[in-house]
Write a structure and sequence with these properties.
It is a single chain. The protein has about 70 residues and is mainly beta. It contains no helices and 6 strands. The protein has a 3-stranded antiparallel sheet, with no helix packed on it.
Length: about 70
């Protein structure tokens, strides 16, 4: 649900090098597209999608960012 409803079934991957959040668009078990986000925040250690749809990312420096639309 929420702003990323069209991401249903896609993968969100934390990127240490070069840093950022990677979304792999999936269809029938195959990657059909790639989107790189948050490339300006540095290395991302982990990503979590909460039950309420919020996307949280853990930065290398220890901060947690909550990703929202817009």
């Amino acid at each position: 649900d929420g702003f990323h409803a069209d991401w249903q079934g896609d993968l969100l991957i934390a990127s240490l090098n070069p840093g950022g959040l990677v979304r792999l668009k999936m269809r029938n078990g195959l990657v059909i597209g790639e989107e790189r986000m948050l490339t300006d925040v540095g290395r991302i250690r982990d990503v979590e999608v909460l039950d309420d749809g919020a996307v949280l990312v853990l930065l290398d420096a220890g901060q947690v960012l909550r990703v929202t639309p817009g």
